[in-house]
């Protein structure tokens, strides 16, 4: 991958042959082996101290069996040789069922995980070599967003704004405007978050991202858990950020309609691999019409993988 290529001038995100596995021995066994050895020595010492040597062989055999089980953890390939480019100002969707690797990919781009192999750049910054520069231009919204639950949405967002160097009297007014736009009542804005539903808390997570106006927005299933009306409100704000601020957005979802409505292009992932990538309209041409009905993105997914989009669960 050559960063000087003229064709990459308007590319915001580059993902090049990225791989990520979990369960590799080098990642999971050193501390387990240490624990096994400690238990083995403890049992040996107890046996010797009591003068009971019979059965030591059985204990040693059990320890070895335990160690073997610990070192034979199944390797799971979460991201398998994935490559794509995202243009500046584009809404790019990654569509797939739970367990397809899309959330792992988002975490790698957000500098929360390291890839095993491959290269990733965001606005010219290498995700692995220059994570601090990447963090300055991105924001991430995930389905497992965390907050100080005893504090109110306002207090949480003021805290988050200060971490990004945003302050002043106008900040509180801006936070209130964003939260009301997302459908929160004014009284909820100043109430503890532990009293709010999961869907409402998710709206606060989205508001936190909107507050910083990042150049790159990574949305990991942002509307999961929201009711249909709240989904539309959030989708409208996402579209507004893209159109008015030129924000480049990477959206992962298993909601085919959301991907169809929002995304300029969609990559369909299955078992860690990108099995198809194009505009929603072009992807639908891969499947013939049946009984006069136009195919959906779910029809495309089923055609390419032989499975329903929501068949697998993590």
List the keywords.
single chain, 314 residues, alpha/beta, Rossmann fold, 2 domains, 13 helices, 10 strands, 44% helix, 21% strand, disordered N terminus
Please describe what this structure looks like:
- The protein is α/β, with parallel strands linked by helices and 314 residues long.
- The chain has two domains: 25-71; 76-305, P-loop containing nucleotide triphosphate hydrolases (Rossmann fold, 3-Layer(aba) Sandwich), CATH 3.40.50.
- It contains 13 helices and ten strands.
- The protein has helices at 25-28, 30-49, 56-71, 102-109, 131-137, 153-163, 169-181, 186-189, 198-212, 228-245, 256-262, 280-284, 297-305; strands at 11-22, 76-87, 91-95, 117-122, 125-126, 138-142, 216-220, 248-253, 265-270, 273-278.
- It has a six-stranded mixed beta sheet, sandwiched between helices.
- Residues 1-7 have low confidence and may be disordered.
Number of helices: 13
| Proportion of helical residues | 40-55%
**Tally of individual domains:** 2
SSE series: EHHHEEHEEHEHHHHEHEHEEHH
Main beta sheet: 6 strands, mixed
User: In order across it, which strands form the biggest sheet?
Assistant: 6-7-8-3-9-10
Low-confidence stretches: 1-7
* CATH hierarchy: architecture of the largest domain: 3-Layer(aba) Sandwich
Distance between the termini: 33 Å
* Structural class based on helices, strands and sheet pairing: alpha/beta
Q: Please count the beta strands (DSSP E, at least 2 residues each).
A: 10
Shape: globular
